[in-house]
Amino acid sequence: MKLSRGMPIAALVIGIFLFFGGVVQGAETGLEAYQKGIASGKKGDYGAAIKDFSRAIKAQPGFAEAYHSRGLMYLLRGKEDKALADFNKALALKPDFAETYFYRASLYDSKNDLDRAIADYTKALELNPKLGATYTRRGILYSQKGDFDRALGDFNKALEINPDSGKNHFLRGKAYLSNKVFDKAIADLDQAIKMDPAVVSAYCDRGWAYQEMGDLDKALADDTKALSLDPKYGWAYYDRGLVYFRLAKYEAALSDYKNAVKFNPEGAPDASLEFIKHEGSQAGSEAEKTVKAVRKILK
Fold first, then answer.
1. Stated pTM of the model
2. How far apart are CA 228 and CA 193, in angstroms?
3. Domains in the chain and their CATH numbers?
4. Residues 283-296: pLDDT tens digits?
5. Which residues in 45-70 are b (16+ Cβ under 10 Å) and which e?
């Protein structure tokens, strides 16, 4: 099962367990079974936790937290339909359960049901505006839908809550890049790289921003750095190949485009469109020969 990208599900589950373990009120046997479920879940014994929460529900049918927690265990075991049923039941019993909206949104997200996921993330934020990870997740979905203005708004809020998040600087930088606000994209990607120098795509994205601004030397340096971290990162080869072409380093350009297609053939159509924008920037027989060769590689 593919859970929501970038989500620390297990860590968040444990946090919610600790929270509910101290506040739940209910029948003694239901509460005891629930607390056993918390202990089982923290140990990673999700099957035992499901049985514990099921006993809690049997003893106390209106136990919203038990449905929520059992749903999390089903989600972690890849039983998405059962997880969804439990989340729905938890919300029917407790409509102001922000965390359940968050996890149901994560489930919809994993199914690529973006509209439902966004609606649930939005409801979670209405109930608890301090759920910083929710702004991040919704911002990613807005980016996927091409709504970069709303994505930027969410990443701004996420950074207000957690200004030291390299991930949110990276994501906001990508949103600025998509909006062609290159100076702000570079500033955010600088921060992301400072916080985590091993993020390959941050160098590649910053390199693209530099290339769009015409600073080919810095673009070349960033693409080369990305490839030093991951020699099979196809996008960096595509981007550096274009830099080399624009610098009239034709043999290097051809070599990079060949590697790009080798490691990321799906990127060829987009790379071809970008190359077309610049293929007339160089003159001479070698440039013409290279243009034909690149077109053939990317075809």
1. 0.81
2. 15
3. 7-111 (1.25.40.10), 228-299 (1.25.40)
4. 999 999 999 999 99
5. ebebbbbbbbbbbebbeebbbbbbbb
